[in-house]
Design goal:
Elements (H helix, E strand, L loop, with lengths): L10 H5 L2 H4 L5 H16 L16 H7 L11
Length: 76
């Protein structure tokens, strides 16, 4: 399963998070890690991240090959 955030729809949730307000380094990475770790745990998966390497995993290639399971909303 590939989980990601597209566009600006998730920005308000991040902006309201503890990570965004605590002044520590890499708030977006830490917020993403917290959420994706919880999602992975709920389905019995192990989370992997594009940060924290090396080795750096090919997330962009995986995303290009992935098929959406939830259709994106149109801009209209």
């Amino acid at each position: 399963m590939l989980v990601g955030f597209v566009g600006s729809e998730n920005w308000p949730a991040f902006a309201a998070s503890p990570e965004a307000a605590d002044g520590a380094p890499d708030p977006l990475d830490r917020w993403s890690s917290r959420l994706i770790t919880a999602i992975a745990g709920s389905v019995g998966a192990s989370p992997l991240f594009p940060f924290g390497g090396p080795p750096f995993l090919p997330f962009q290639r995986w995303a290009q090959r992935a098929e959406p399971s939830i259709p994106r909303r149109s801009a209209s």
